[in-house]
Write a structure and sequence with these properties.
The protein has 111 residues and is mainly alpha-helical. It has a single domain, classed as Cytochrome c-like domain (Cytochrome Bc1 Complex, Chain D, domain 2, Orthogonal Bundle). The chain is built from 5 helices and no strands. Helix 2 crosses helix 5 and helix 4 crosses helix 5. It is elongated and about 65 Å long. About 6% of the residues have low confidence. One of its GO terms (molecular function) is heme binding. Pfam families: Cytochrome_CBB3. It comes from Dulcicalothrix desertica PCC 7102. Belongs to the cytochrome c family. PetJ subfamily.
Length: 111
């Protein structure tokens, strides 16, 4: 019985270690997509067009764009000065860049 408990604990530990978060898209791809398409206006999470519309956590929350769904919607369809990328990026690429933006916002855009 003791060996069985150890085996169960080991299996559960391996499962927990290998499971990725729900929105763990390809961060590396998201970074590359961001650099190629977004960094021109949003360098280091800022915004050269409208300062208050930056990509820092506080601004994302204030503007109601602090979720995967909201960022995906904005990148896909654009809004005001923000262009739509639905004809330029695939849905998985948009998911990757949204994941990257949320991750960077959590890290305060520190590399």
């Amino acid at each position: 019985m003791n060996k069985l408990k150890k085996l169960v604990v080991l299996v559960l530990l391996l499962i927990v270690i290998t499971i990725q978060p729900a929105y763990a898209e390809d961060i590396g791809a998201g970074s590359k997509i961001f650099e190629a398409n977004c960094a021109g206006c949003h360098i280091n999470g800022g915004n050269i067009v409208r300062r208050g519309k930056n990509l820092f956590k506080k601004a994302l929350k204030r503007n109601g764009i602090d979720s995967m769904e909201a960022i995906t919607e904005l990148v896909t369809n654009g809004k005001n000065n923000m262009p739509a990328y639905k004809d330029k990026l695939t849905a998985p690429e948009i998911q990757d860049v949204a994941t990257y933006v949320l991750q960077q916002a959590e890290n305060n855009w520190r590399h």
